[in-house]
Amino acid sequence: MSQNDIVLVTTATIIQDEEVLIIKENKPAALNKWTFPGGHIEYGEDILYAAQREVKEETGYDINLIGTTGVYNFLSNISSQVIMFHFIGEITGGRLHLDEEGITGSMWIKLSDFAQFKDDELREPQVIKQIIRNLLNEEVHPISIYHEKLAR
């Protein structure tokens, strides 16, 4: 990727029994960093579908999207501009089965436990911390603010 790339991604906070699922990545740009499940939006793909697909691919869980904390625009650690759509989801099916190539671990934690992590343990720590603040302060928006991709 060049310095002028714009990358579109989705992530999701999966909530279950007052805890959230985080994953440890095994990717060159984020080796052993904790984050929320997610990934790239494919060309022409609906954003909501992309979030559900990425969670399924990385964790094995089927989810229902119930809200969003918003859209985050930042420069990544490899100098790409990232526009990230972050969602909140509930498990509707599947079982935990991590993507063996890209994920090395997972854990369920309380939102307040994010304070235990050092910045170098998190992927894009400023963004993760903003998402956590939004969740703790209940600054959450209804999923209906997103519209599914319109047919041509």
TrEMBL record:
Cofactors named for this entry: Mg(2+)
Entry-linked SUPFAM superfamilies: Nudix (SSF55811)
Pfam families the record matches: NUDIX (PF00293)
PROSITE patterns: NUDIX, NUDIX_BOX
An MF annotation (GO) of this entry: hydrolase activity
Coiled coil feature spans: none
Start and end residues of each Nudix hydrolase domain: 1-133
Record's keyword terms, sorted: Hydrolase
Family named by the database record: Belongs to the Nudix hydrolase family.
PANTHER family: GDP-MANNOSE MANNOSYL HYDROLASE, MUTT_NUDIX FAMILY PROTEIN
Protein name: NUDIX domain-containing protein
Gene source species: Metabacillus mangrovi
